[in-house]
Amino acid sequence: MLLHKEKKFEEVFRAHFRELHNYAYRFFEDTNIAEEVVQQVFLKFWERDWEKVIHTSAKAYLYRSVYNESLNLLKRNSLKKQYETYQSQHASIETYNDDSDSELRKQLQVALSHLPEKCRTVFEMSRFQELKNQEIASELNLSLKTVEGHMTKALRHLRIYLFDYLTGLVLTLMYGL
């Protein structure tokens, strides 16, 4: 079964890689970046149960995935450039002081307190104790997938919970609002 899946995946890869690379190249005009985008799409494609997930054609799915991945990368690069420009213009930001740092820590603790205990423990072990997912799984006697699920849930929760606070902080730092 796995051999059949691998062979079919390889066929799809060989059939579409070059045209997807050309498509991604139009976004970046850089062959290396285009290759990375297409490889990332195929990696995600492989990680999913792609034969069951695709409701259209594989080609349509892959083109849409390359399009989305390209737009996401362009957006990340744009934000990164904006940040770098800001940093170069304001080499020393003195408005970000201990008060902001302690307030962020307090907001993080409040956000973490809203998580289920196991989820919070996994997050803290990963981010504060800097343990790898496999180490966390072994220590808590959980499967690796369960640890990954807890991390996904925790990060999603923190992203939602801290969004307003972090947006306000960034605007304050950038524009002195």
Automatic annotation (TrEMBL):
Q: What residues does the RNA polymerase sigma-70 region domain cover? A: 13-78
The biological process GO terms on file are: DNA-templated transcription initiation
RNA polymerase sigma factor 70 region 4 type domain ranges (all copies): 106-158
- SUPFAM superfamilies according to UniProt: Sigma2 domain of RNA polymerase sigma factors (SSF88946), Sigma3 and sigma4 domains of RNA polymerase sigma factors (SSF88659)
| Keywords linked to the UniProt accession | Sigma factor, Transcription, Transcription regulation
Gene Ontology MF terms in the entry: DNA binding; sigma factor activity
Task: Please name the Pfam families in this protein's record.
Answer: Sigma70_r2 (PF04542), Sigma70_r4_2 (PF08281)
Q: Which domain of life is it from?
A: Bacteria
Recorded hits in InterPro entries, A to Z, give:
RNA_pol_sigma-70-like, RNA_pol_sigma-70_dom, RNA_pol_sigma70_bacteroid, RNA_pol_sigma70_r2, RNA_pol_sigma70_r4_t2, RNA_pol_sigma_r2, RNA_pol_sigma_r3/r4-like, WH-like_DNA-bd_sf
Family statement: Belongs to the sigma-70 factor family. ECF subfamily.
Q: What is this protein called?
A: RNA polymerase sigma-70 factor
In its UniProt entry, the species of origin is given as Sphingobacterium olei
